[in-house]
Design a protein that fits this description.
The structure is a single chain. With 885 residues, the protein is α/β, with parallel strands linked by helices. An eight-stranded mixed sheet has the order 15-25-24-17-18-19-20-16. Strand 30 (714-719), helix 29 and strand 31 (752-758) form a beta-alpha-beta unit. Helix 6 (155-168) runs antiparallel to helix 7. It is elongated. Bound molecules: adenosine-5'-diphosphate and magnesium ion (MG) (2 copies). One magnesium ion is lined by residues 106, 109-110, 283.
Length: 885
């Protein structure tokens, strides 16, 4: 820790810069940087994140030297501006703004116009020659300060404002006269006195310290904590506080405030994209109080608005803004999200940061920036969060489906979602436990984050493309339609009505299309996504950077085709039992299991053989030229048996046996602990005829493909749940025997490997012995996690939450690999396995194969491939590239 707590910026100079985000927070660091770039930034200073830490370490006290540093910084600003903080005739006003290292949108509120009181407001009125503006600023200040610092419910003020507007017969805030505003200020102050028994603070310094403390205090408020939890931001990072001299967008028709993205954050198009409001201040644009206007003519056309764009209303300022955003992009080499204010035809920059964007836009922007020479391919890959690709792989609405569109609003976050309507975040949390829900709100606020998180999609009646709902939904990758002014919500009675009189109640199902803004009654079928050329290009670059191969877990022709289309380089896990569940064969499977002797089993297996052979033939054909790993039968047999009475009767009838026979066999086969019972290779040991049938089906299919298409099948036969070398030794002999029989019959030579899954701790520890038999290992990390923790994947859901809350598990170990424990077993198995067999092939086929953080580990552990579900293949390809960059 240094003892410098305050960093100033202004007048083309700054003590900080954009590399100092940890100390100054993102906002402060970038304000300093913009100053240094010579951009117009109102002067100010940043109190460092170290002070936040100090504040919480020291019983909410500040370092003793802080006061003097602040006094000095204020004096410097007074000199630049030519006004004095707290001065009655010529008052300097400040904004007090929070800013942490990672941007936390809407988490901590800003106080504007600080320094105003009953006297300075007159000074401001005289100095500006605009009394209305002065009182508008004062009433805003009282509102914000009371809300943020005094913890006073802003609802109180809204009631007063609404009553005043009604009394005067006006609709918008801008129509309020100066007298009306003066009256409102009085009423505000009275209300505060009434409720808090104290006068609204008049002393500028007291106001300033109040606001500074409030920002630090808010670091630990519930919504900030929730946001950090959801986004993995450590609470130790702290927030900085930015104190900045005010510029005013509410000075009349030549003033304005706005927000803009240097490229379109929805689709990535290279065009300035944003919204502004004339004669407005601060967050009016995003708060949804007035309908924001588009900055560009193009944007105005796209949104179908008839309100004048900034390009038309303020062409000179617009040109300056274009110039600045281009400079910023060149400087930061990334898409910027900027905030600005125009005071009497002068443009001021208030913020810049790398803009949040949809996955679709992220891919396009990264690829475009490589083409523009701004960044290189590695950087492009680094910029894409693999997990976010999920958004692109999400289904869209089937265009052929008949839909009943009840309205159209802003396409705030792409993708299609459908679910039951709920009207509050609490209801969303409750109902989402059993059903898919769509959260419908007038507009969302930070309190809604949890509710948004559990919803499939979000629909808001108010708010633009930069509203809270839109920004947060895009970040979460949830479909969102915003600004749906055609609906009227009754939050209490829990229904909404459309303009056409359609009533949608809580529990009714709707579908929203966040890509075009449609709101649809009922559920709509969805389609596989269509991937853009930019996406394919980027994935191609990623492939060039990765070492790990990516395979898919698939057993149907459709899944195999999807996997290939997504770029899978083979099948890492084909679960033969999935084929057993097919309607046309489950009865033969049951016959086989229920049989009491070898004869009976063989009879049933003979029926299954041609079916399995057909399945394998299909898969081998589709996966031509790529490896296919087939796992022999794995699950406990009783999983296939009928359990309900009705089912038992049906099965008995179908097989022509007594009902009691089925029941008795069911009872005999029942296990107390089936996951640790008679399953995996243990089945192959006790019923070799089952594995024999499967091996035969595999080899016959491979011969068939070789004959018909003259192509080799890169076949890998995998034996599950091996714990000892002996198991694999016995089963290998069995498989080789079948191979020789098929080869003799078909007069053909087949190439293949026999390997094992490593999914028991003993197998990992004995990997050197096992590798003398196994030609490949595939880590079955689901079972390996279960057996290492002694934790059932099927039963742990109920208490895993407690474990995570108690901090015992940081992550669900079934979703993200436990690198410390399970990872160690993998490392041991890799080392021991390779010691025995140098060219041992290594892969992983658990759920973790599609999890980016786990993939980074598998890369480091030196595996050859990961295998995951087909839809996660692109995510894995990108994560594998990032692991190697
Ligand atoms: P957030 O982190 O929520 O974006 P900000 O600190 O950026 O909060 O403040 C919100 C808005 O307040 C800004 O976009 C800007 O319009 C307004 N604002 C902040 N500081 C100033 C200032 N010095 N002068 C005028 N407006 C300001
Ligand atoms: Mg805010
Ligand atoms: Mg901001």
């Amino acid at each position: 820790m240094t003892d410098k707590y305050v960093y100033s910026f202004g007048d083309g100079k700054a003590e900080g810069d954009s590399s100092m985000k940890n100390l100054l927070g993102g906002k402060g660091a970038n304000l300093a940087e913009m100053c240094k770039m010579g951009l117009p930034v109102p002067p100010g200073f940043t109190i460092t994140t170290e002070v936040c830490d100090f504040y919480y370490q020291n019983n909410q006290q500040f370092p003793s030297s802080l006061n003097l540093e602040i006094e000095n910084s204020i004096a410097a600003i007074e000199k630049i501006i030519g006004a004095k903080f707290g001065d009655i005739d010529n008052p300097l006003l400040f904004s007090v703004r929070s800013g942490s290292r990672a941007s936390m949108p809407g988490m901590m509120d800003t106080v504007l116009n600080l320094g105003l009181n009953d006297k300075t407001v007159i000074g401001l009125a005289n100095k500006s020659g605009n009394r209305r503006f002065a009182f508008d600023s004062y009433r805003r200040f009282i509102q914000m300060y009371s809300d943020v610092v005094l913890g006073f419910d802003h609802y109180n003020f809204e009631v007063i404002m609404d009553e005043k507007k009604q009394e005067l017969g006006v609709v918008t805030d801008t129509e309020l006269s100066v007298e009306a505003l003066e009256g409102i200020v009085e009423l505000f102050k009275q209300k505060i006195k009434e409720e808090t028994k104290k006068d609204f603070p008049q002393d500028a310094k007291e106001q300033l310290w109040g606001a500074i403390s409030a920002v630090f205090f808010s670091w630990m408020n519930e919504r900030a904590i929730t946001y950090r939890e959801l986004n993995n931001i450590p609470s130790a990072w702290g927030t900085a506080v930015n104190i900045q001299s005010m510029v005013f967008g509410n000075m009349g028709e030549t003033s304005a405030t706005g927000v803009a993205f240097s490229r379109n954050p929805s689709n990535g198009n290279k065009e300035l994209y944003g919204e502004y409001l004339i004669n407005a201040q601060g967050e009016d644009v995003v708060a949804g109080i007035r309908t924001p206007q588009s900055i560009t003519i193009n944007g105005k056309k796209q949104s179908g608005s008839d309100l004048i764009s900034m390009e038309e209303s303020m062409p000179k300022i617009f040109a300056e803004l274009v110039n600045i955003y281009q400079k910023l992009e060149l400087h930061y080499k990334d898409m910027q999200d900027i905030e600005f204010t125009v005071q009497n035809n002068k443009l001021w920059m208030l913020q810049t940061r790398n803009g949040k964007r949809t996955a679709h836009a992220a891919v396009k922007i990264a690829v475009d920036m490589v083409k523009e020479g701004l960044i290189d391919k590695k950087e492009a890959i680094r910029r894409i969060d693999p997990e976010s690709l999920d958004q692109l792989l999400h289904p869209t609405l089937d265009p052929k489906a008949k839909v009943k569109i009840i309205g159209n609003a802003l396409p705030a976050s792409p993708g299609a979602a459908c679910g039951m309507v709920v009207f509050s975040s609490q209801d969303a949390e409750k109902k989402s436990e059993s059903k898919k829900v769509i959260l419908v709100r007038l507009e969302t606020s930070p309190e809604d984050i949890k509710g948004m998180h559990v919803s499939e999609g979000i629909l808001t009646a108010r708010g633009g493309m930069t509203s809270h709902a839109a920004v947060v939904a895009r970040g979460m990758g949830k479909p969102c339609v915003s600004g749906a002014s055609f609906i009227q919500i009754d939050h209490n009675a829990k229904f909404f009505t459309t303009q056409d009189g359609i009533i949608v109640k809580e529990g009714d199902v709707i579908t929203i299309n966040g890509s075009n803004g449609d709101v649809i009654l009922g559920e709509v079928p969805t389609l596989k996504p269509n991937l853009s050329d930019d996406f394919k290009l980027l994935m191609g670059w990623a492939d060039g950077f990765r070492k790990l191969k990516i395979r898919a877990n698939a057993e149907t022709a459709l899944d195999c085709q999807t996997a290939r289309d997504f770029g899978a380089e083979g099948i890492g896990l084909c679960r033969t039992e999935h084929m057993f569940f097919n309607e046309d064969r489950i009865i033969s499977v049951r016959e086989m299991i229920l049989a009491e002797d070898l004869e009976g089993r063989k009879k049933a297996l003979a029926k299954l053989l041609p079916m399995q052979e057909r399945d394998f033939f299909q898969i081998f054909k589709i996966m031509a030229g790529l490896p296919v790993t087939i796992r022999l039968l794995d699950p406990p047999l009783h999983e296939f048996l009928p359990h309900k009475d009705q089912e038992i009767i049906e099965v008995a009838n179908q097989l022509g046996v007594e009902i009691d026979y089925v029941k008795r066999r069911n009872a005999q086969l029942k296990e107390e602990n089936p996951m640790l019972g008679h399953r995996g290779c243990r089945l192959g040991i006790s019923y070799p005829e089952i594995y024999e049938m499967q091996a035969r089906a595999i080899f016959e299919a491979a011969s068939e493909v070789k004959k018909q298409y003259n192509q080799d099948v890169l076949l890998e036969i995998m034996i599950p749940l091996v714990a000892t070398k002996k198991e694999i030794e016995i089963l290998k002999k069995l498989i080789i025997k079948v191979e020789l029989e098929v080869e003799a019959k078909q007069k053909i030579k087949l190439n293949y490997l026999i390997g094992t899954m490593i999914e028991l701790p003993r197998a990992a520890l004995m990997a050197d012995e096992i590798a003398s038999e196994a030609e490949f290992f595939s880590f079955g990390t689901n079972d390996l996690t279960q057996t290492t923790f002694g934790l059932s994947r099927d039963d742990s859901a109920g208490f895993l939450g407690h474990y995570q809350n108690a901090g015992i598990f940081k992550k669900d170990p079934f979703a993200e690999l436990d690198v410390d424990g399970v990872g160690q077993l993998i490392e041991i198995a890799v080392a021991k396995g390779k010691a025995t067999r140098k060219n041992l092939k290594l892969g992983i086929c658990g759920e973790h194969g599609g999890n980016p953080n786990s993939i980074y580990f598998f890369h480091k552990a030196g595996l050859d491939y990961v295998s995951c579900s087909p839809y996660r293949v692109p995510i894995a390809r990108l994560a594998a590239a990032k692991a190697n960059i």
